[in-house]
Amino acid sequence: MNRIILTSDEVRGDGTVILTDFRAEHVRFVLKARVGDEVKTGVLNGLIGSSSVEGIDEQRVVLRTHHDTHAPEPWFDLLLAVPRPKVLKRLLPQLAALGVGKLVLLNAYKVEKCYFSSQWLEPAHYTTLLVEGLMQVGTTCLPEVLIKERFKPFMEDDLDVLFPNALRLLAHPGDSTEQRWTLAEGQRPLLAVGPEGGWTDYELDMFLKRGFLPFSLGARTLRTDTAAIALIAVLEERLSNQIKGDSVC
Questions:
Q1: Within a 10 A sphere around the Cβ of 28, how many other Cβ atoms?
Q2: 77/234 Cα distance (integer angstroms)
């Protein structure tokens, strides 16, 4: 945990917060803070900064907040065919840490129907995992999670409404050599990652007809969590190189 995240309703009118949960234990036993020390904090979907420790004992930690800096904004969105529950649980904190903005958990032909009954698709459970990722990376922008159980209606009715100006990238095992695209000003990448084994031909055709461009790591068929993390890392590197290239006089 590199930043303690608070909710707006926890911060009292005088700017103080009383912690009694795992965050208090973190301050006591991991940070080994004492009265007068400063710890990194932030408000969920709000500003970041630090807080001074005003009181500490075995039951609670009292902080006085000083938040004056905007947190980094999310830089990409993700369409993710719903993976196995244990994979989703493992992946959600990492996606939040990497900077996902909107996360659409989408049905697909190779997605098992029982996956949609997982507790990790319930807001109370996935929010906890996303906040865990935010605390690890030290930011506060909570990803927006949308669960879409019908592939075709999402593609035909929701895609353009939710992502009208995205750079649409389609992840699928295949040739990784000729993949050229440029992120226009004001755009944010939208990456579509399918189930293990990839999208079906029908699904691929739906994506390509709606302006998705191939974005592959090669012919290897990867596990969902491996593919998603690797694709995001490669995407960030390519965008960084594009920005560097644009800045050269």
A1: 18
A2: 15
Residue with tokens 């995407």: 235
List pLDDT tens digits, range 175-211. Answer: 655 567 888 888 999 999 999 888 999 999 999 999 9
Q: What is the dihedral of CA 92, 97, 98, 102, to 10 degrees?
A: 60
Residues 41 and 45: their CA atoms lie apart, in Å, by: 12
The reply to whether the predicted model has a pTM over 0.85 is: yes
Q: Which helix (H) or strand (E) holds 76?
A: strand 76-81
Q: Which domains does the chain have, with CATH numbers?
A: 4-69 (2.40.240.20), 76-247 (3.40.1280.10)
Nearest to 183 by CA among 197, 169, 172, 173: 169
CA angle 148, 149, 154 (to 5 degrees): 50
d(CA 56, CA 100): 35
Question: Tell me: the pLDDT tens digits for 70-102?
Answer: 999 999 999 999 999 999 999 999 999 999 999
